[in-house]
Prior knowledge:
Layout: H1 3-14, H2 19-31, H3 33-38, H4 40-44, H5 47-51, E1 56-65, E2 71-82, E3 88-94, H6 100-116, E4 122-128, H7 137-151, E5 160-163, H8 170-184, H9 205-223, E6 232-236, H10 240-251, E7 255-260, E8 264-267, H11 274-283, E9 299-302, E10 314-317, H12 326-334, E11 339-341, H13 350-358, E12 362-364, H14 366-369, H15 372-386, H16 392-417, H17 423-441
Parallel strand pairs: 3-4, 3-5, 6-7, 6-10, 10-11, 11-12
Antiparallel strand pairs: 1-2, 2-4, 7-8, 8-9
Helix pairs in contact: 1-2, 2-6, 6-17, 7-8, 9-10, 9-15, 9-16, 12-13, 15-16, 16-17
Bound molecules: NADPH dihydro-nicotinamide-adenine-dinucleotide phosphate and (2Z)-2-iminopentanedioic acid.
(2Z)-2-iminopentanedioic acid binds near residues 90, 165, 374 and 377.
Amino acid sequence: xxxxxxxxxxxxxxxxxxxxxxxxxxxxxxxxxxxxxxxxxxxxxxxxxxxxxxxxxxxxxxxxxxxxxxxxxxxxxxxxxxxxxxxxxxxxxxxxxxxxxxxxxxxxxxxxxxxxxxxxxxxxxxxxxxxxxxxxxxxxxxxxxxxxxxxxxxxxxxxxxxxxxxxxxxxxxxxxxxxxxxxxxxxxxxxxxxxxxxxxxxxxxxxxxxxxxxxxxxxxxxxxxxxxxxxxxxxxxxxxxxxxxxxxxxxxxxxxxxxxxxxxxxxxxxxxxxxxxxxxxxxxxxxxxxxxxxxxxxxxxxxxxxxxxxxxxxxxxxxxxxxxxxxxxxxxxxxxxxxxxxxxxxxxxxxxxxxxxxxxxxxxxxxxxxxxxxxxxxxxxxxxxxxxxxxxxxxxxxxxxxxxxxxxxxxxxxxxxxxxxxxxxxxxxxxxxxxxxxxxxxxxx
Length: 445
Ligand code: NDP
Ligand code: 2IT
């Protein structure tokens, strides 16, 4: 049995009932074969065995009182996965589906994504099974404060720097940061990213993941003699990543015709009006079904997954993991999809990805394509360190350069180790090599 098979077998055995974590590890390790076979150095010092085991995992109680005076108890998580190239860095997710397997898959993927960004950040992730939907502002605040009452002792500007993810946006980050500051009695702006602009946040961080995705996809299309202009796009999700991916796609002359939330999707042949989506989702916090009230040609359909029945050239899954399984992938292929851009983390199952590659569909893989968010977080940390703020144009230009560099790195390593269009292998291998070299230099720790 080779080392990859052995590590995969052990991961399954040691992390039972965590299928998402196993899926993420399997996806990475199977693409690393050519590198591991060539490099006895990596095999001899147990790089893979160490890489799949988090450096530290914290699980804690989060008690909070709701508006009716009832006591609620949720579970909080922070997985500090790998600090070979920098302090742990990664978002916090509040969603009822959160458990250790979700946080570990996200933390594991973050290692390679952060490495690809070219910036000095390690991999981590956190979250809670708290459901922010239908909670009052006061309830959200009390929950965030209680969450931070434990988390604060494990994070720090040079230790572990959280940010947002599903269910954690500007509002939640404000409450989390406020409580951290109170507990530490000091203004450590660099301990959190995605902060508001009035207290140390960076311009463009809000837009960065969606914009970065489109900068990456644009480069991928250009490399293959295509452009974004007039491409028919469908986007799953209507949150931070989806909204800004939609906005940038429209700016680039593409035609976004469908978007969804967790309940259903809207189809608008005239092209999605992003201002309406922003108002419904960011200001009113309502369902996407409201959209048809404002656009008479638009239609609403129940069932989020049905969005993948819509015919398109480019599919951008920007909602959550395992959004596109083999069934949805088959529908997309039958309908002639040409490109996939993963805005969410692990939005496609491994057999869905395999089907896309077999059908010569170009896939921009999440670890590379959605790295614009965490990269701009690292730019926020830089600004906090030098106590200066850069303009929108300055940060946007840096983001564009970072995404183009990530594309070059990914594409070069695909050519070197795999097939030139296998950007999935390219991203995994390039992300891995930097971390492996750093681990090699730092001894067995
Ligand atoms: P948001 O909470 O802002 O939005 C999530 C969107 O996805 C919502 O519209 C939500 O619907 C929809 N959705 C549909 N199905 C599900 C489901 N089963 N679980 C959760 N959401 C669902 O999150 P983000 O836009 O920040 O994140 C989206 C994805 O992008 C995630 O995979 C995240 O890990 C990834 N990502 C985020 C980054 C960031 O900077 N925010 C950076 C890199 C990756 P509804 O409105 O009905 O809840
Ligand atoms: O998945 C991700 O990269 C994020 N949620 C953003 C992490 C960050 O630290 O900005």
